Amino acid sequence: MTDTTPLADGFATVDRATWRELVAAALAKSRGPVAAEDAERLLATPTDDGYSVHGLYTAADLAGWQPPADPGAQDFIRGSRGADASVDWDVRQRHWLSADTPAAVTDDLANGVTSIWLTDGDPARAAAVLGGIDLAAVPVVMEGFRGGTALARTLLAAGPDLNPASSLGLDPLGLVAATRRGGDVDDALDLAGEAQEAGILALTVDGSVYHDAGASFAEELGATTAAGLAALRLLIDSGIPADRAAALMEFRWVVTDDQFASIAKLRAARVMWNRVLDLAGVSSAQGQRQHATTSIAMLTARDPWVNLVRNCVAAFAGGVGGAAAVTVEPYSLATGEVDEFARRMARNTQLLLLQESHVGFVADPAGGSYYVENRTRQLAEAGWAWLQDIEAAGGMRSALDSGLVAKRLDRTWRLRADRTAHRAAPITGVSEFPDHVRRPGDAPDAWQPPGGGLPRRRYAQAFESLRDRADAATPPPTVTLLTLGPLARHAARETYAQNLFAAGGIGTTSVPYQPGESVALPPGGAVVCVCGTDGDYAELIDDVAAAAVAAGAVRVLVAGKPGERAEQDAAAGVTGHLHVGCDAERLLDQTLTDLEVPA
Fold it and tell me: Omega into 6 within 30° of 0, i.e. cis?
């Protein structure tokens, strides 16, 4: 037996009060005197779900919230698989049906993919794909908001021996949410009965419909669980016993590069669904079967290589969160081009996590973390509150028809869009550290979501629209940076300005300003941004602004917060400032307009 030594041995005990004092002292170095009792509040980060993420979590934060010790035990917070079962998740690859899909599916299955997800398309093409798969060994999940019942029938007709983890992928409420069509509900219920006879899953309650419309983590939890509850009621009302109805369902959840929130969301989803089944009178202990898919909303068309990192973090969260199956969306999806390399990177991301990092070796590795357990509880409570609001409105169908869901998600989207515009929610490669490569013309859109219902959005879309606008302009839009003093004095703000303008596809040309001399602006440099120190601004802003206007500048900006110089800058003709926290999206849009770049 190996002897173990507690890691805290030899260290002095630090209580919460001492920790607060240390934090207050650290914060005081940058913001002035800070009271110890204010330390935690100053470190707290609010979320869209009404709670804050704090800087410290201890056992005291988990009062009344103690998860069961073993995986597979109700309320399934640690997962639905028992301790003796394999904890590796199913590597599920997504394919949009096309003429090339059969060959692509064959390649995936030969190189580590363990199940297939077929999205939309012609049933004849689906039949061609299914004909090349060992359906008894390989689970196949269908999904088609443009004709899901036809694709479902294709799977049922493919053979009598289908893998039990296969699914028709029907989602009656998701169809209404995505397209406002509800006519397939009766067909879906008939097919659910056939799926039960075939021994496969019938329904996939798809949370991506709500996530892509702008839902927060708790809003996705509440809306998706409400959709699942509505679907469960439909199955029970059609004559299927509650226990069997619950066993016909799978849930699809979206995981993002917000690693811990994604892990907690999957755990909270199982707790919430267990409560629903308990209230529905489901007698047999069943955990929620979960399929985690990486977020399309977080993908960028600009500098898409960063998506590889985002996808890796999200896939890690899906596996650690306890999903039975994980899908990594192609890193290049937002660019409109999904090729063999993109598919290979999608599957290899998971294979590296499973076979080299052994992330699937432990069930619920995040369990026991004060932070994760607390976040799980907070998300479950916030998600349950939203579920209750939906139920109070008459259930998910009524909440969709009345616009309750759309209005709620739109409000949350606007909050996130505002943070993105101010770069408080930075997007690497787009709003921060932008890729400078120009890409004239519109890229084709390989991701063709259904229309008519909730919108589909990406976080980077506003900044990327600015880039598309700039890249279509000839000659390329350029801002003149008038630098004050030696390099050591203006370099920091010059670099800041260069990167901010690059986020809008706008190039820069630096021109040193010599006091008392006229300014020669380069061609197209009708917008000027002055870069220097606060001391230089106080001394020279009147002269430099006047010189810029005399040279033909239509707008004069200053890099840095105005502070006490606001009135002086305005009197000199300065009409805007670049600084941390400014509305970068609006500033870039106005700059392109000033440079006469068509919208």
Answer: no
Here the tokens at position 508 are 């820069």
Closest CA to 254 of 200, 306, 213: 213
159: left (phi over 0), alpha (psi -120 to 50) or beta: left
Residues 6+ apart with CB under 8 A from 437: none
User: Which tokens belong to 62?
Assistant: 């988990």
CA–CA distance, 284 with 281 (Å, rounded to integer):
9
CA–CA dist 472, 469 (Å, integer)? 5
Burial status of residue 563 (CB atoms within 10 A of its CB: 0-12, 13-18, 19 or more) = exposed
CB 262 within 8 A of CB 255: yes
* Distance, CA of 138 to chain centre: 29
Tell me what pLDDT residue 437 has: 80
| For residue 441, pLDDT beyond 80 | no
- The pair of structure tokens assigned to 44 is 């707290």
Q: Specify the higher pLDDT residue, 302 or 446.
A: 302
First-last CA distance in the chain: 71
Q: Using one digit for the tens of pLDDT, what is the confidence trace for 57-113?
A: 988 888 877 766 688 888 899 887 654 455 689 999 999 988 999 999 999 999 999
Identify any residues that bridge with 118 across adjacent strands, giving them in sequence order.
95, 142
Q: What is the pTM of this model?
A: 0.93
